[in-house]
Design goal:
Blueprint: H1 3-18, H2 24-38, H3 46-52, E1 72-77, E2 79-84, H4 89-102, H5 111-121, H6 134-142, H7 153-177, H8 213-230, H9 235-252
Antiparallel strand pairs: 1-2
Length: 253
């Protein structure tokens, strides 16, 4: 899935979860987490295999160990875990944003503030200050070049925050220089049932007031023209057609 395709998905999901339009910085920050954690659920290996089976996880959300209940699939993180899975990219993106919102992660204050808040919330574990516990022993066996100890847990946490922030920055840089982080991966899997734009007083697409029947008809006609003009062979065209269908359903209610 391309970054530009994910942008459409995350913009729609943000509107549903936060109830407002996202800023470009907020979309950057949310997508950076999805890229860093699982490459939109298409990271080569276990996430790519899950995606090929129609199971999507954008944020590496997990709970428990196998045997996994319905809605989770076995995978590897620190040991064997149960990853949550969803049937579409829309649902996976929505869940990631729900977690970021619920835990109060700032998405418009830069990678350092975002990383620190995610560490405090427990989103990512990081390393403890001593090599004496099992978690760190497993980590250091896998990363012998990082086998260092800190004088306190506070120092270890500070290092964890810096490293995750640096990783976010790197993913943002990659997203701005290439549009396809997973060449050959499965295309976006949309779930139109959850892509329902808000219909109410105020301007809709192209500034049309969708709270009025005439405005709704004009808005639908405009979107229809866009969809036919772009065609369904492009992501923009597909998005226009999907939005047209959603608006039509909402207007008929």
């Amino acid at each position: 899935m391309r970054h530009s395709e994910a942008r459409v998905i995350y913009r729609d999901a943000f509107r549903r979860i936060y109830g407002r339009e996202p800023s470009e910085d907020e979309l950057d920050a949310a997508q950076a987490v999805a890229i860093l954690e699982t490459k939109y659920g298409r990271w080569e290996g276990q996430f790519a295999r899950l995606a090929a089976q129609g199971h999507f996880n954008h944020g590496a959300e997990q709970r428990g160990q196998p045997p996994c209940p319905e809605g989770r699939m076995p995978g590897s993180d620190v040991g064997t875990v149960c990853f949550y899975v969803w049937p579409s990219d829309d649902a996976a993106a929505e869940n990631l944003l729900k977690i970021l919102k619920k835990t109060g992660i700032p998405l418009d204050q830069g990678p350092e503030a975002q990383s620190a808040a995610m560490r405090r919330s427990g989103y990512y574990g990081g390393r403890n200050w001593s090599r004496e516990n099992d978690y760190n022993l497993a980590y250091y066996r896998a990363h012998p070049d990082k086998a260092v100890e800190w004088g306190s847990q506070a120092e270890a946490d500070s290092a964890n925050v810096r490293e995750y922030a640096a990783a976010i920055r790197q993913r943002l840089k990659e997203a701005r220089t290439t549009d396809d982080p997973t060449p050959g991966g499965p295309p976006p899997v949309r779930d139109v049932s959850v892509v329902e734009p808000s219909i109410g007083p105020g301007p809709g697409p192209s500034g049309v007031d969708l709270s009025r029947p005439l405005g709704a008809l004009v808005g639908l006609a405009a979107l229809g023209g866009v969809g036919w003009a772009l065609g369904t062979r492009t992501s923009q065209g597909r998005e226009a057609v999907q939005r047209l269908a959603s608006l039509a359903r909402a207007w008929r209610r």
